[in-house]
Amino acid sequence: MSTLLAATEGDSKDLIGSDRGKGCLMSRFHAGNLMVWIITVVMSFASSECLGQEFTLKAGNAEVLASGSVDVPIYIDVNTGVGASTIDFGITYRGFLTLTSISEGSALTGLNGGAGAFQFLPDTADDGTPTTPSGAGTGLKGASLSVIIPDLSDPSPDFLTMGADQEIAVLHFTDGSDKPSAISDTEFTNSLSGGLGAVVIEITDDNTTTPGTYNTPAGVALVNGEVLVTTPPVTGFTCMQTDPCACTVSLDWTNGYLYDTLSLYKDSVDPANLIDTFLPSGGVLAESYVLTQTNPTTYILVGRSNGVDSAETSCTEMSDCTDPDSTPPVINGTPADMPGLKTDGGLCTTTVSWTDPTATDNCPPDPTPSYEVTEGGTADPSLTNGGTWPAGTYVVTFSAMDINGNSATSTSFTVTISDNEAPEILDTPDDQFAYKTDGGLCTTTVSWTDPTATDNCSPVPTPTYEVIEVVGGTTVALTNGGSWSAGIYLVTFNATDVNGNDAGSTSFNVTVSDNEDPEISGMPANITEKNDDGSCDAVVSWTEPTDSDNCPGQGLSSTHNPGATFPVGSATTVTYTSTDASGNSVTDSFTVTINDNEDPSDITGMPLDITQKNDAGNCDAVVTWTEMPSADDNCAGTIAATADMPSGSTFSLGDTIVTYTATDAAGNMSTATFTVTINDNEDPSDITGMPLDITQKNDA
To answer: How far apart are CA 333 and CA 352, in angstroms?
Structure first.
């Protein structure tokens, strides 16, 4: 007897028949529960020669689609040298499949040269299509088949040679009008009609179903298997965060079938977790989906056809996006500072342009930076890229905000437009020399028409001026139309524009002349004094006069000052001069006369009295002396005294008083005398007519 051993789910064990005596025992086999296969288990043996032969029987695996067709190959492994020549089996199946045909297996095509090497003997209807064998269970279809291997040239039968996986038949099933809606069973049974009834194979919906009561031959057991009609799952299911800004996740997959419905769940297959259900449209079913995810999520797809759900297919996206896009954009390519721009000639402006920066953001679209131009902190929206800008220093600040309200860190650059064009001063007044001080005053009104200035930049500066008094070089606070003191002034104009450019100075002279002489008052009268004792001069004092002028700064000078020493002699003129700051002067004077009223000192060196006789023959005598009397004078010093009768004079007989007089230049005199006595020691000639003696006193 042969025994079939069963292979369990996931195993690859073969079914082995072994010789145990008359008859071939058939075991029950449950194959591939929950696997997406049709498993046809076959029992194979050599007719009338079951003893001593071992065969391995297999059903080929094939995927069953709910609305498709399937070919189920039947294999035999010949394990003995005897080989196999006849294989009989029967099959029943549910109504959702239709056995349309049975074709020879590839292992038979070469037998007997391919000429009638096999034949199928199924139960057939009148038109030759398989029919349900008699004895099959209610609601089952089926067939009983016999594979006979004739030898046309040799009366002894051919055998399948020893070897594995020899395909002896292919069962062709197609979808019937009843599409499966649940797990269905197909039975191979031993209660079929005809001479093949001893060979049975049964396929049921699970391994617990007990086959029906059949007319089972002695020694023959039932072999059961299972075919699951299953909706295939989706494949290639992926999930990936595609936009971290919007927290979007893209799901992509490939449908294993055109499902009636395709359901998308999160975390578990539960109606409460259903995200969406997809329905086919025009023969097309969605294979992608985009949604928003804020926490790590497992997504599950389940297809359903004819009430049958596919196995779950899942993917997990671990992104955590609780705060959609808090990343600010970044501004790139901010221009460098522009420090060297100049205004165009004759203009206060120039064209300013730059290449705008760009912004990048983690979330599309990238924002376009905007800018603001400020000068001194004040925005000026009129200043634009490529526009005309006036001179100044500007800060161009760029900002950017993405679609989610995140602001980029601002960037900026500085634009410095220098105005190097100086203003020009026009119509500077000519020099003005004709101003005179007003009568009695040291001032007059000075006025002029102010010059103007032109400049390339507005506001055009108004020239300012500074008045410098030329004498001394000091700045004075005099104004146009004001009262100006006498003097010479330099009025210097300057103009500086708003950008610090200096026009350079222009100037004119103003001369305010003071032609009014000062006045001297309180002049002393002429002074006459005698000399100081012992001196040829005298110290004279007086009260000085005063002076006044229409302008301050006049000065009074004199040739002599009180307390000065004046010489004896002619009058000395004391002159006072008052000169003002403008050079105007006036003089006045008085005289000081010092008279020498002091006589010379006593005359010294006077001769002693001289007594001399008369010269012979004369009544007189020439008297000489050597002394040279002199006197000291306060002015002349030593002065010679002069005699009224100088030495060598002839003196008459008698006493003659000789007077020496010392007279200074002022006529002051000092006198001294000595007496010259001339005695007549000569006797007269004979006296004749002698008078009487005469006695007479000297002349007074």
So the answer is: 17
Condensed to tens digits (0 to 9), the pLDDT of residues 373-428 reads 999 999 999 999 999 999 889 999 999 999 888 999 999 999 999 998 999 999 99
State the average pLDDT over residues 277-287.
92
What 3-state class would DSSP assign to 15?
strand
Predicted pLDDT of residue 667:
86
Cα gap 514→525, rounded to integer Å:
30
Residue 111 carries which DSSP code?
A: G
Cα separation, 198 vs 188, whole angstroms: 11
Gap between the Cα atoms of 314 and 17, Å rounded: 43
In this prediction, residue 688 carries a pLDDT of: 78
Amino acid at 347: L
Cβ atoms of residues 251 and 299 within 8 Å? yes
Name the fold adopted by 519-595.
Immunoglobulin-like (2.60.40)
**Phi, psi dihedrals of residue 25, rounded to the nearest 5°:** -70, 135
Q: How far apart are CA 130 and CA 89, in angstroms?
A: 14
- Fold topology of 330-418: Immunoglobulin-like (2.60.40)
Q: Say which CATH topology domain 424-513 has.
A: Immunoglobulin-like (2.60.40)
Contact between residue 305 and residue 317 where contact means Cβ atoms under 8 Å apart: no
Q: Which position has the token pair 């699970």? A: 206
Determine contact, residues 191/136, Cβ cutoff 8 Å. yes
Domain limits, CATH 2.60.40.680, in the chain: 1-230
3-state SS record for 272-332: HHEEEEECCECCECCCEEEEECCCCEEEEEEEEECCEECCCEEEEECCCCCCCCCCCCEEE
User: Which residues neighbour 686 within 8 Å (Cβ) at sequence distance 6 or greater?
Assistant: none
DSSP output for 178-220: S---S-------S--SSTTTT---EE-SSTTPPP----PPTT-
Query: For a pLDDT cut of 90, what percent of the chain falls above it?
Result: 44
- Position 198 scores a pLDDT of 32
Please choose, from the candidates 499, 490, 354, 486, the residue with its C-alpha nearest in 3D space to the C-alpha of residue 412: 354
Buried-state track 206-241, b at ≥16 Cβ within 10 A, e below 16: ebebebbebebeebbbbbbbbbbbbbbbbeebebeb
Query: What are the φ/ψ torsions at residue 659 (nearest 5 degrees)?
Result: -110, 125
Q: Give tens-digit pLDDT for 676-694.
A: 998 988 876 776 777 888 8
| Cβ count within 10 A of residue 64 | 22
Tokens coding 5: 């051993």
The residue among 658, 607, 667 whose CA lies nearest residue 633 is 667
What CATH code would you report for 235-317? Answer: 2.60.40.10
Please state, in angstroms and rounded to a whole number, the distance separating the CA atoms of residues 405 and 176: 61
Cis peptide before 122 (omega within 30 of 0): no
Instruction: Write the DSSP symbol of residue 108.
Output: G
For β-strands 297-305 and 330-332, DSSP reports them as unpaired
369's CB contacts (< 8 A; 6+ apart) are 331, 356, 357, 358, 359, 398, 399, 400, 408
Q: Where are the beta strands (DSSP E) in 44-133?
A: 55-59, 70-78, 86-93, 97-104
The CB-based long-range contact list for 458-461 (8 Å cut-off, 24+ gap) reads 458/348, 459/498, 460/423, 460/497, 461/423, 461/495, 461/496, 461/497, 461/498, 461/503
**Structure-token pair, residue 146:** 């016999």
600-700 in CATH: which number? Answer: 2.60.40
Tell me the CATH number for domain 1-230.
2.60.40.680
